[in-house]
Write a structure and sequence with these properties.
This protein is of the alpha+beta class and 315 residues long. Helices cover 32% and strands 20% of the residues. Among the domains are: 43 residues, Membrane-bound Lytic Murein Transglycosylase D, Chain A, CATH 3.10.350.10; 119 residues, Glucose Permease (Domain IIA).
Length: 315
């Protein structure tokens, strides 16, 4: 009896299971294996760890700060740089011109003697060594002490001249009666140079001391007209390696003075050539805006000076 009841219940339950499709779908749904779940979880953790590592590396990478000894592009300004690697076409004068220092100082800092031969790949110091700076300071202090001593001696001499003649020691002569010869200008000074205008034309831009873009004057003229040496000297640079000058000529007139002629259409002199005052050295070219212009500079001991103070007044 009991067995018949149990068999009847089993049959009823089977019919119910077959009549409920949702239940059959649930029963047939595949189970997620525990090993596959663990693998998925591990993959997610690995991706998170990799992303965190990338974030930390990006934050810890230091930014590269520019230094003054970086490699400079050809022809760019070298003012403020500590060193420079020489390229083909450079001369000591052109490098000193770009650095705004006197060529003799540049040669002295690097132990280079005349005729100032340099080689591509050679690195030049563009700032004075620390020992040179200390020496310059000590010399300046010595000059100050000497000036103070000279002023004291001058004061004593003036007091002695003001004494009565009887009070002076025997044999002393008054300096007031002696003739004083005029002091001649030192060799290589501006007094020994006779500047002339390098080209005919109209002055369209003047000199501004604190403006690096106006360290000379600009003369407007005719395309192809002659450019002449403002004074006799030696050509120390002839080429187009300095940005902003076009075809450029630099002439050394003496140990102190250099002159530069920029934006030439043609250049008729080579480096090392001796030129006379008024000699034709080039032809006027054009600037970027197409205007025929001569850019003219004069530098004394590496520092730009106003050419209008040295050139004769135009009529």
């Amino acid at each position: 009896m009991i067995s018949e009841v149990l068999s009847g219940l089993r049959m009823n339950l089977g019919v119910l299971a077959q009549s409920n499709p949702k239940q059959r779908a649930v029963n047939r749904s595949p189970r997620v294996r525990p090993s596959r779940a663990r693998a998925c979880f591990s993959g997610v953790l690995l991706l998170c760890w990799f992303a965190c590592c990338l974030l930390l590396v990006g934050c810890s990478t230091p930014s590269t700060a520019p230094v003054s000894s970086r490699e400079y592009s050809p022809g760019t300004s070298l003012r403020g740089a500590s060193s420079y690697r020489i390229r083909k076409g450079d001369t000591l004068y052109s490098i000193a011109w770009r650095a705004g220092v006197d060529h003799r100082r540049l040669a002295s800092w690097n132990g280079i003697r005349a005729p100032y031969t340099i080689y591509p790949g050679q690195r030049l110091r563009l700032q004075p060594p620390a020992s040179s700076t200390a020496t310059a300071r000590s010399k300046a202090a010595g000059k100050t002490r000497s000036a103070a001593t000279g002023q004291a001696s001058s004061s004593r001499a003036t007091a002695a001249q003001r004494r009565p003649a009887a009070a002076r020691s025997p044999g002393t002569r008054s300096a007031g009666g002696a003739s004083v010869s005029p002091v001649s200008s030192p060799p290589g000074g501006a007094g020994t140079l006779h500047w002339r205008w390098p080209a005919k034309g109209k002055l369209v831009q003047g000199f501004v001391a604190n403006d690096r873009s106006r360290q000379g004057i600009k003369i407007a003229g005719t395309f192809g007209q002659p450019i002449r040496a403002a004074e006799a000297g030696k050509v120390v640079y002839s080429g187009s390696g300095l940005i902003g000058y076009g075809r450029l000529i630099i002439i050394k007139h003496n140990k102190n003075y250099l002159s530069a002629y920029g934006h030439n259409r043609k250049i008729f002199v080579d480096e090392g050539a001796q030129v006379a005052r008024g000699e034709r050295i080039g032809e006027m070219g054009k600037t970027g805006d197409g205007q025929p212009i001569l850019h003219f500079e004069i530098r004394r001991n590496g520092e730009p000076v106003n050419p209008l103070r040295l050139l004769p007044r135009q009529g």
